[in-house]
Specification:
Helices cover 71% and strands 0% of the residues. The chain is mostly helical.
Length: 187
């Protein structure tokens, strides 16, 4: 008899015990059959790591148990949503308007005088303090503060921003999202 035939016979002889163990782990016959099949496939694929002379059945049970635990950890993070009610609550805003707003912002930045743009980017985007920005630009701290303030005011004017409510989704998008969340969807 060839070694593979012997291994195959030992593996096949262990199937009923593996199946009973799998059923005890998951409580579902169909799921147990899937676990046993996957465990046998993994064992066959990794037959080279089996130590001849050791207990093949114990090795198979270990593979099955590890497979069950891995899948259990993965499934634990999943949420059952048969009727789709949970997925319906997950709403994401359209990204097209965000992309357009970024493009508009870049164009507005180009309209600023170079000194204001540089000061605003160093303080606002790069996170430098006014003092550090003044050292980088070689001017007084008050000059940097003035440039940043003028740049912010000019950007707000160019982009037609009056207050904080002008940021984020527009009124129409907010209304649709809010109606989806409350279940009062408009037709």
């Amino acid at each position: 008899m060839s070694p593979h035939k012997d291994v195959r016979e030992v593996m096949l002889a262990a199937v009923p015990s593996l199946r009973a163990f799998a059923i005890s782990l998951c409580g579902n016959v169909d799921r147990a059959d899937d676990l046993v099949q996957e465990a046998l496939l993994r064992a066959w694929a990794n037959l080279g790591s089996f130590q001849p002379g050791t207990n093949m059945s114990a090795w198979l049970f270990t593979i099955l148990r590890n497979l069950f635990r891995s899948e259990y950890r993965k499934r634990r993070r999943e949420i059952e949503d048969a009727d789709g009610s949970y997925a319906e609550q997950l709403t994401s805003l359209p990204e097209q308007s965000s992309r357009l707003e970024i493009d508009e912002f870049r164009e507005a930045l180009k309209l600023l005088p170079p000194e204001q743009r540089e000061s605003l980017i160093l303080v606002g985007a790069s996170g430098f303090s006014y003092e550090e920005t003044a050292n980088i630009c070689g001017c007084a701290v008050g000059t940097i503060k003035s440039r940043v303030n003028r740049a912010r005011s000019r950007l707000a004017e160019i982009l037609s921003i009056e207050d904080a409510s002008d940021f984020g989704p527009d009124r129409e998008t907010r209304a649709v999202v809010n109606s989806d969340l409350t279940g009062t969807r408009r037709s």
